[in-house]
Amino acid sequence: MNMINLELPQSDPFTNLKVTLLLESLTSGEVAASVREFPECQVKAETREAAIAQIQATFLERLKNIEAISWNVPIQASEPTWMKFAGVFKDDADFVAIMESIRAERTSDDDSEVDPSYYL
User: Fold this and answer.
1) For residues 101, 107, 108 and 113, what is the CA-based torsion angle, rounded to 10 degrees?
2) pTM (2 d.p.)
């Protein structure tokens, strides 16, 4: 069984965290405020200013219990799945003829249309 070493660094205290405060005027006249990045963090207040102050205080209190750690996820680089099929027709004479036919049609100056009955 292979063990993966996660190498989690020690957590750093938040030094700068930018969040977006969402304010919504309710039909009751109150203002609801929430943090977009933490949608469960919500408050309601009588005024816009009170809602902003309350959501800021609520969120700062919540941050006291949150720990942020970074984790560099080890991902093994692998070749794209299509690569195993690359070059399978390189020595196929029929494929060369087909490609030459397609190339000739693409570069042709013939502007006549294909007979639609051919496709029916």
Assistant:
1) 90
2) 0.49
